[in-house]
Amino acid sequence: MLTIETIPQNVLIELAFSLDPADIARLAQTCKTFFQIYSSNELWRSKTHHDFGNLFAVYHILTTSGLELDPALGAKFANEPSNWRQYYIEKNNAVNGTDAQNNALLHEGEEEYIKAQKDLQSFQDSQDVTILSRVASKLVWILDVFPGHAGCYHLLGFILYILNRLEEAMMLLDFGRTVDPEYEPIDDLEEEISKILNGYKGSEEEEPLIKDHELTPKLAEVLSEIFETFDQDHDGALNNQELGNFIFTTNGSHPPPQFLVQIAQRFGGTERYWLTKDGFLAFYLEQTLDDPTETRSDLSVHGYDGQTLQKMMQE
After folding, report:
1. Quick one: how far is CA 275 from the chain centroid?
2. In terms of C-beta density within 10 A (0-12 exposed, 13-18 middle, 19 or more buried), how is residue 161 classed?
3. Which parts of the sequence belong to the F-box domain (predicted)?
4. Chain-centroid distance, C-alpha 252
């Protein structure tokens, strides 16, 4: 016989997701079991995430990925509330205003979303990372008012994709899929990121290239061996001729001297702008995060199996 005591707790929790706070409060007064469940801080935490998204997690993901968000967002989302029921009620009242208020906010939110898209386009020209932080802040503010805006999650995921924070990007895309499973741009970006992740994580046949956003020890060892092969004078740096020889052997091009200097300046060089081993590894870290297949191809050119990272037998 089915009784209140025998109803699975997960069913009662799912029921709460479809009720407003007043209905839950009335249910909680009907029996001790309901009171214990519907007064639980964890239930209200889950209901908050279900109805409004987990902006506390979003904030943490973005800030730990190197973005400097609006300080006012930190005041709201850096720390979770101690009383989730109170937080939910206040949030619910703020989000669910009158029809006129909601329409005005919706119009404002869409305008801000369009501006965010344009700002991201400007980043392509300037490469100014502060633009990404500004856009991310704007998108989080929109989500604070419109929790179901899957486009914001898509753009946030794209920002982390630009920053090579691929696993974190996938988390945000997953949040977006939760609010709108039919939003196709999320699927497209997730597919692209999955290809890259699979490329440097490796498979049963492939040695991984990246772990925790760094070169794996095995890949670093192989790249160091390649570096030492081209460091003909064994001074710990590739001068212009040595670096030029490496690039020509790798892809058949003859880069101009200024390009070689720029590589050393960007990734790590001596006072004479010769690329150091650390700079060489830093270059390959960036390349591998961007395109692991290119790194595997480079290894093959230099006598290593691009999948296993083992040195191939010379005929």
Report:
1. 30
2. buried
3. 1-47
4. 34
- Determine the Cα–Cα distance for residues 291 and 197; give it in Å rounded to an integer: 10
Same topology for domains 72-201 and 210-301, yes or no? no
Instruction: Classify domain 72-201 at the CATH superfamily level.
Output: Tetratricopeptide repeat domain (1.25.40.10)
Reduced to 3 states, what is the DSSP secondary structure of residue 211?
Answer: strand
Q: CA angle 115-168-157, nearest 5°?
A: 25
The amino acid at residue 86 is Q
**Which superfamily is assigned to 210-301 in CATH?**
EF-hand (1.10.238.10)
How far apart CA 118 and CA 16 sit, in angstroms, is 40
pLDDT tens, per residue, the chain with 315 residues = 556 666 777 888 888 888 888 998 888 888 888 888 888 999 999 999 999 999 999 999 999 999 999 999 999 999 999 999 999 999 988 877 656 556 666 777 788 888 888 888 888 777 788 999 999 999 999 999 889 899 999 999 999 998 888 899 999 999 999 999 999 999 999 998 988 887 766 666 788 999 888 999 999 999 999 999 999 999 999 999 999 999 999 989 888 999 999 999 999 999 999 999 999 999 999 999 888 889 999 999 999 998 899 988 654
> Contact at 8 Å (CB) between 236 and 276?
yes
Q: Which two tokens stand for residue 22?
A: 């007043």
The bridge status of strand 237-238 relative to strand 275-276 is antiparallel
Which spans in the chain are helix H? 9-17, 21-28, 32-38, 41-52, 55-64, 71-77, 84-95, 99-126, 129-145, 150-162, 166-179, 184-201, 217-230, 240-251, 257-267, 277-290, 292-301
- Sequence-separated (6 or more) residues with CB below 8 Å from residue 151: 113, 183, 185
